[in-house]
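Sample intake sheet
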Amino acid sequence: MSGRICLVGAGPGDPELLTVRAARLLGEADAVLHDRLISPEILALIRPGAEVINVGKEEGQQESVQPLILKLLEDCARHCSLVVRLKSGDPFVFGRGAEEWAWLAARGYAVEVVPGVSSALSVAALQGIPPTCRGFAAGFAVVTGHRAAADAGFWARHAGVDTLIILMGVRNRASIAAALLAAGRAGAQPVAFIENGSTPRERVVVSDLGSVAAGRVEVQAPAVFVVGDVVRCRELLLPSLAALVA
């Protein structure tokens, strides 16, 4: 007999943004395998006595560590009734959730999916930057920042989208911005970086695409990189948000 495995999204970081289902499963799990960026407050919801394994990957370790994660999932499922694979944000937004699900399904494991609140949409909205807004943007795309700027075709295909939300793009931010400029995006286009979104360490950097391309914008990972006129909405929306929080 093998246990049930749940692929669970932990949201962007704030424990208040965890789903009710996710919190319930953490309180029932026999084993939890979690990503590196899961907040201590969320980990504190895990049932006392459960086996807790940090399987977080540093930059560049993805290909070597992922097979070990799959092996650990299988090992835990053999002696646990309920195993939670806890992933940052939503498991299926650049989180390898589909790969892990396919691997488990091919081996006959019962899998439950619990979506999470993705940082791609949530952390910018929390700072008054919606992905779409009448008069500013009619559509958006979420793309990975791991694609090199040399892949001009990739950035050219996305350069015309009103709002670009780039995940894992801090390291390549200057080359990404340069590629978007080369594809026709305006240098004055506003951009925002939201570092450590929804956590006490949150910081927002607002600039323009030309300054990012020139290397004049300092940002620390993890951060969500937003390009588009919706960044201007922050000036309209943030004052009321600050008043509400106060």
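Comment: The chain has two domains: 4-117, 120-245. The radius of gyration is 19 Å.
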